[in-house]
């Protein structure tokens, strides 16, 4: 057996490898002269995971109605509701046949959202001949907003920043509407499992607490005039603190993603969104 000692190069013969196999190093005041292999990443969580998807998380998950109607029998099929709540809808569940009995019970995929009262469906929710009104329906929940892994580069999410804006917001509500019933769940998925970061996010305080009260709870204030709205909470979750030093990693070319799952109607708040910051690491 050959024994060796590695010294630190300072001329003092101090061991470079110390207790528990740790390596003693000295940090220089300047970076190495090597090619830059990272680029800044910034993207909102969106309803389709792309940078061009919808960033507004004011959606109608768990919304129900009794005034659904369809008078368009040509694809895409227009479904309307005077009571609204269709923003963010991905699927519509129709549970009865309507006033005239011409509706078809089933779950229908939304191809586009026109506004809070109108969506376009990929299939006709009627018998294909007769118009129908008075359809009982619900917006199928949950509704996800997410950021995917990059196809070519490892992605590191350093922190995310929420905006929950609503006039007269208080800490124990969601914006200035009642606390959510089921709430939101923030999670990420790797190649093996889903890892929940926080579930049952029902109030402004739940989001602030998830961010470890960043800013510190002694300084929590309602921020004025955020995104043109009167009052807002702006909680921050720093993944770099939870998973140092780089934050949450999404492996290149994988199906991994960071997701906020919304299980309630959030349309009543004036603004609700989340933006992520970090970097992509490339070869």
Average predicted local confidence, pLDDT: 89
For the record, the CATH class of the largest domain is Mainly Beta
Continuous helix count: 2
Unreliable spans:
none
The CATH topology name of the largest domain reads: Jelly Rolls
- Major beta sheet, specifics? 7 strands, antiparallel
Question: Would you kindly provide a written description of the structure presented here, covering whatever features stand out?
Answer:
With 283 residues, the protein is mostly beta strands. It has two helices and 17 strands. The strands form three sheets. Strands 1, 9, 12, 13, 14, 15 and 17 form a seven-stranded antiparallel beta sheet that branches. A six-stranded antiparallel beta barrel has the order 2-3-6-5-4-7. The chain has a four-stranded antiparallel beta sheet with strand order 8-16-10-11, with helices on one face. The model has no long low-confidence stretch (mean pLDDT 89).
Task: Itemize the secondary structure elements and their pairings.
Blueprint: E1 38-44, E2 64-70, E3 77-81, E4 91-94, E5 106-115, E6 118-121, E7 132-139, E8 143-148, E9 154-165, E10 184-189, E11 194-201, H1 204-210, E12 223-224, E13 231-233, E14 236-238, H2 239-242, E15 248-250, E16 257-262, E17 271-281
Antiparallel strand pairs: 1-17, 2-3, 2-7, 3-6, 4-5, 4-7, 5-6, 8-16, 9-13, 9-14, 9-15, 9-17, 10-11, 10-16, 12-13
């Amino acid at each position: 057996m050959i024994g060796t000692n590695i010294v630190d190069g300072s001329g003092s013969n101090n061991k470079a490898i110390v207790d528990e196999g740790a390596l003693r190093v000295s940090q220089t005041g300047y970076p190495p002269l090597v090619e830059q292999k990272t680029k800044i990443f910034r993207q909102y969580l969106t309803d389709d995971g792309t940078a061009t998807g919808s960033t507004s998380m004011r959606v109608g998950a768990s919304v129900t109605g009794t005034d659904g109607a369809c008078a368009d029998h040509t694809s895409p099929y227009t479904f309307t509701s005077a009571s609204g709540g269709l923003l963010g809808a991905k699927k519509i569940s129709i549970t009865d046949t309507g006033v005239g009995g011409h509706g078809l019970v089933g779950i229908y995929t939304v191809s586009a959202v026109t506004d809070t009262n109108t969506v376009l469906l990929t299939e006709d929710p009627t018998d294909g001949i007769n118009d129908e009104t008075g359809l009982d329906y619900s917006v199928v929940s949950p509704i996800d907003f997410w950021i995917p892994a990059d196809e070519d580069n490892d992605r590191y999410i350093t922190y995310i920043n929420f905006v929950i804006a609503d006039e007269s917001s208080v800490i124990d509500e969601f914006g200035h509407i009642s606390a959510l019933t089921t709430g939101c769940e923030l999670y990420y998925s790797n190649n093996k499992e889903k890892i929940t970061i926080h579930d049952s996010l029902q109030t402004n305080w739940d989001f602030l607490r998830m961010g470890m009260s960043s800013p510190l709870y002694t300084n929590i204030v309602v921020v004025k005039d955020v995104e043109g709205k009167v009052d807002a909470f702006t909680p921050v979750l720093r993944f770099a603190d939870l998973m140092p030093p780089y934050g949450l990693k999404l492996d290149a070319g994988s199906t991994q993603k960071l997701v906020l799952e919304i299980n309630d109607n959030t349309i009543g708040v004036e603004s609700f969104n989340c933006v992520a910051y970090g970097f992509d690491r490339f070869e």
